[in-house]
């Protein structure tokens, strides 16, 4: 089975969601709960409601608050996205309610950092599927697809309101530790989302661009594109070579370029979204 077919298969998506959801639930139950941290998003709202009301548990509140979110997903995103996200939400909520785990981390700062790393890893693994973790992710995807409102901006505003309420009702040190947890978690999510899809966009300006292109095609087995350029100083026409590669190929490409032309200009930029052609397919929920 090709990588593209594997990415779209139901089995692979369920594996990603299961692993990510279990990691997320274990971190919330084994680290966040003993320290009373407020996680980000809708689960954070659930924890805050449980803390203030003393009724039900965060896992049950999380499933209740998800009901309107999944109604929105049903009408505004897709059935596939809804069923995958529903599975992730139920698995997270039920696992949290049934798990009896405590990581035994005493230091509040260590707990916040480790919990952020684990919840971010779990969320990132789930988001590599064609579903989501439920909750706030559903509303975020709708706003992004319909109104081009960035996920980062939406999450920032929502969590700003959430932690403002936290400062009003909870211990200040606890809320600050929760903010650290959320910050580390967001970094971990970005890392896991980019870990297997990071690419390098390279631009090569050389007098021997055709020879370099031929060697790239022969040795690296990747495509390249010529862009028409015009030198500002010498006023000469130039062929700029554009190639998209992964981290492993970068040093080999660099060796090819400077072996052919020691005076070449070699420009490298990170890119996390290369869609189409022989690269990733566009992700449609």
Q: Mind explaining what this structure looks like?
A:
With about 280 residues, the chain is an alpha+beta fold. It has two domains: about 5-195, no CATH class; about 200-270, Alpha-Beta Plaits (2-Layer Sandwich), CATH 3.30.70. The protein has eleven helices and four strands; from the N terminus they run αααααααααβαββαβ. The protein has helices at about 5-10, 10-35, 40-55, 60-75, 80-100, 110-125, 135-145, 150-170, 170-195, 210-220, 245-260, and strands at about 200-205, 225-230, 235-245, 265-270. It has a four-stranded antiparallel sheet. A hairpin with a 6-residue loop joins strand 2 and strand 3. Helix 4 runs parallel beside helix 7 (about 135-145). The longest helix has 26 residues, at about 10-35. The chain is elongated, with a radius of gyration of 23 Å. The two termini are about 20 Å apart. The relative contact order is 0.13.
Can you lay out the helices and strands and say which pair or pack?
Elements: H1 3-8, H2 10-35, H3 41-53, H4 58-76, H5 79-98, H6 108-127, H7 136-147, H8 151-169, H9 172-194, E1 199-205, H10 209-220, E2 225-230, E3 237-245, H11 247-260, E4 265-271
Antiparallel strand pairs: 1-3, 1-4, 2-3
Helix pairs in contact: 2-5, 2-6, 3-4, 3-8, 4-5, 4-7, 6-9, 10-11
Q: What's this, in brief?
A:
The protein is an alpha+beta fold and 285 residues long.
Structural class: alpha+beta
Shape descriptor reads elongated
User: What share of the residues lie within helices?
Assistant: 55-70%
**Alpha-carbon distance between the termini?**
22 Å
The succession of helices and strands, N to C, reads HHHHHHHHHEHEEHE
**Which sheet architecture does the biggest sheet show?**
4 strands, antiparallel
Beta-strand residue fraction: 5-15%
- Strand line-up across the major sheet: 2-3-1-4
Could you give the count of β-strands? 4
Q: pLDDT below 50 for ≥5 consecutive residues: which ranges?
A: none
Rounded to an integer, what's the Rg over CA atoms?
23 Å
Mean pLDDT: 81
The number of helical segments is 11
Supply the number of structural domains. 2
